[in-house]
Amino acid sequence: MTGNRRHETIHIAALMLAGMVLYFYRLGAPGLMDPDEGRYAEIAREMLLLKDWIIPHLNLLPYLEKPPLVYWLTGLSFQAQGLSEWAARLPAAVSALGGVFLAFFLGRTLWGARAGWLSALILATCGGYVALGRLIILDMPLTLFFNLGVGLGYLALIRERPGLWIWAYLALALGVLTKGPVVLVLAAGIWGAWCWSQSRPLIRSWLRPWGLALLIAVCLPWFVLVAQRYPDFLRFFILEQHLGRFLTKAIHHHQPVYFYLPVLLGFMLPWSWLLPWAVGRERPGKDPRRLFLLIWAGAVLLFFSLSRGKLAPYILPSLLPLALLLGQGLADLERSGGFAGSRGFWCSLMLWAFLAWGLLGFYFWPPDEVVPLLAKGELLKPLFLPGLLILALTPTIALIWRRPGVLAAGALMFSLLVPWGMEKISAQRSPRELGLSLKSHWRPGGALVGYRLYSQGLSFYSGQVFHLLSFATELDYGRKLAGTTSLFFDTPQEMAAFVRSRPGVFFFLRDEEQASLERELPGKFSFLGRWKNYMLMDYDEESLRAGRSAEEGKPADG
Length: 558
Prior knowledge:
By secondary structure, the chain is mainly α. The protein has 3 domains: 3-30 and 64-336, no CATH class; 338-430, no CATH class; 432-552, no CATH class. The chain is built from 25 helices and 8 strands. The chain has helices at 3-24, 36-50, 69-81, 85-111, 113-124, 127-132, 139-159, 163-179, 182-197, 209-229, 233-247, 260-267, 275-280, 288-306, 319-335, 343-364, 371-376, 381-401, 404-429, 432-441, 456-462, 476-482, 492-499, 514-520, 541-552, and strands at residues 57-58, 61-62, 447-450, 466-469, 488-489, 505-510, 526-531, 534-539. The strands form 2 sheets. The chain has a 6-stranded mixed sheet. The protein has a two-stranded antiparallel ribbon with strand order 1-2. Strand 4 (466-469), helix 22 (476-482) and strand 5 form a beta-alpha-beta unit. Helix 2 packs across helix 3. It is globular. The relative contact order is 0.10.
């Protein structure tokens, strides 16, 4: 084995080890968090329950906001490993590790093995990337498929290797089945913008008829099958869930246009401090490879910044091209003799150290304006001090020692705090304990009633669906498609009649709603547990008898 090959093998093994620790260690320890993790795990559970792999269901109602690929992967994971947090999060963790290796191979192909290794390490240790790689949401698998498609398409363009296009189009097709056609819009925009910058044909350079045929063959069957069952589906999916989210405030998540600037800096911690240097150290047109990465990241950030609906994970695909730019920059520094050869890099480290020590000072001696922010983060307070110390010491030691390995070690230590923090957040945001309590108290013929309240995670952990006293939820469109259903009560009187027809009923409600429920449904409630400001109560046969006796004792009207 040659020296270069040996080094590459060591790098791959090191990335695998780091990835296993960052994305898989204690992956199943935190409870699934509402709403997103609970929702996607419950949809996959109901796929297995109903044996319907075409129409996703949530609370036994059609749920058609997103395509089904992640639900399929999660359902298969449940089939193989049982219903567990580990199995639910496995597709996201595998996707995160896949993205790290994609960064390695793209960086190696573009600039050499050292740049690939540094790029992959940077991506792997970005705090936001670690966090989203340990959650069951759609964005990490989408990021893998989208970035794989865009990256392979670029290599096909610059290397004149048409055989790569089939894999690029296949990856994008899987992206469409993950979250919808937005991946095609973005990929076409990125390839088209780069071709225009290089005076190549704007569309003909990347558009392949057989690629479109593959896209159609992979994606179209699911859309056709759903549209056959529910003719209104395409209108809802395209006009409301895609164009509506992009163009209007109608579907919540409205944020200002600059929303993603702080999000990006937070996601890329601790490497965020070096982003201005990595992006601005050369003119964009000097190296077409750097230009493509800038277009890639910029297109993602610009597209979602212009959207009226914004959620933080939407910009996750931009982290890989930015990590490649950082990795190439650090590799160039090593080849040119170290940190002292770049005034911009030196200044970036100085600024990083100055700001990080300043934040540490605020932690110990907080101004009055900072005290409320620290109070809001009380749950994560044990992580503040080690996190800030790492952020401050990493650039300081690097300035003294002048070795890039210091930055990598600091980033790895910082990213190791992320899973610890997620476990602490999960303790507050997961209904696991309440769901398991409900499961242990369940009686045959019982029912779970949400009193103007709904929890996807509670359904997953208890294995029970909700009967709901009507209020606006994400289930509204599914209720419309399903038609008449016994899962909803339009009035408290309908709810009371339903309760008295069942041998045992459990109520999930807000603390402040307890008095209202007890007025509408006389009887004795047994308290089972509390989660945040929500409670679970048991209304059993004794309560039914008490309720009936109370009604029989009322004087007749008139």
